[in-house]
Amino acid sequence: RTVYLNGQYVPETEAKVSVFDRGFLFADAVYEVVSVIDGKLIDFDGHVARLHRSMAELRMPQPPGREELLTMCRELAARNALTEGMIYFEVTRGNPGDRDFLFPSAELQPTIVGFTQNAPLVDRPQAESGVSVVTLPDRRWQMAHVKTTQLLYASLMKAEAKACGADDAWLVRDGFVTEGSSQNAHIVTKQGKLITHPLDSSILHGITQSAVLELARQGVVEVETRSFTVEEAKDAAEAMVTAASAFVLPVTRIDGVQLGDGTCGPITRKLRETYIEFAR
Ligand code: PDD
């Protein structure tokens, strides 16, 4: 693969980052994942805007501009013949040359990396069969709206979910589902309403969910923004996750409880189809 590092396109084996980079020592870094279908970047501007918001929250100076990031993504897709999959990019606070908790001078150049990942996004068996989740405690820091590379807890919960025989984890704080380990979580009640968590600091404000909810409101389903409990989720007609790497995927099992007939429900299917059509 050809990867991007600080303005250059290099073979992945030649891309070197210092051991003193704050991304490595402090997870002092933010990232984005942009999906690609037929070589087209999906919701690129939304991802750039969120990267800039994440950097502002962490007082990271020198955000890379939209044009620089767009050129990087287009070049990476072209050089790696990416037609369907994801582009990952990350900005760290940079390499101050030593380990020090205090933020370095604002003059320090950030480290910028990007790479591509091939993956089938449109045709996936899980779009029909759905995914199973187990609910696990949300012990992440309380700035989950900032998209940092501090992903150890998400990895730990995914491993825990796998060990339980499930595909993924839904995280729970005070009895309420916040979100998935790396996706936003939504349910459709038996009364036919889509329930989605409020956009506060306990969840990542998903770019995919924002587009999907917008489409949902245009006549697919009534949307209610409030948190929901684990019990409500298990009693729901349908459940789903949204993320750049998933688009919309049905959740058909929560803590071993099957939802509906155990396959993708009609509202989830409609939202997935509508979103893919809109994204193409
Ligand atoms: N994950 N919530 C969390 C905790 C996430 O990590 C993600 C994205 C989302 C969905 O956000 P979006 O729709 O903007 O992708 C929600 C990415 C895909 C990842 O870490 O791979």
UniProtKB/TrEMBL annotation:
Domain of life: Bacteria
A single Gene Ontology CC term: cytosol
MF terms (GO), sorted A to Z: L-isoleucine-2-oxoglutarate transaminase activity; L-leucine-2-oxoglutarate transaminase activity; L-valine-2-oxoglutarate transaminase activity
CDD domains assigned: D-AAT_like
Assigned keywords, A-Z: Amino-acid biosynthesis, Aminotransferase, Branched-chain amino acid biosynthesis, Pyridoxal phosphate, Transferase
Reactions catalysed according to its record: L-valine + 2-oxoglutarate = 3-methyl-2-oxobutanoate + L-glutamate; L-isoleucine + 2-oxoglutarate = (S)-3-methyl-2-oxopentanoate + L-glutamate; L-leucine + 2-oxoglutarate = 4-methyl-2-oxopentanoate + L-glutamate
The protein's annotated pathway: Amino-acid biosynthesis; L-isoleucine biosynthesis; L-isoleucine from 2-oxobutanoate: step 4/4; Amino-acid biosynthesis; L-leucine biosynthesis; L-leucine from 3-methyl-2-oxobutanoate: step 4/4; Amino-acid biosynthesis; L-valine biosynthesis; L-valine from pyruvate: step 4/4
Family matches, as Pfam families: Aminotran_4
Annotated transmembrane regions: none
InterPro entries named among the record's database cross-references: Aminotrans_IV, Aminotransferase-like, BCAT-like_C, BCAT-like_N, Class-IV_PLP-Dep_Aminotrnsfr
Cofactor(s) listed: pyridoxal 5'-phosphate
EC number of this enzyme: 2.6.1.42
Gene Ontology biological process terms from the UniProt entry: amino acid biosynthetic process; branched-chain amino acid biosynthetic process
Summary of the function given for this chain in its UniProt record: Acts on leucine, isoleucine and valine.
UniProt record similarity statement: Belongs to the class-IV pyridoxal-phosphate-dependent aminotransferase family.
Protein name as catalogued: Probable branched-chain-amino-acid aminotransferase
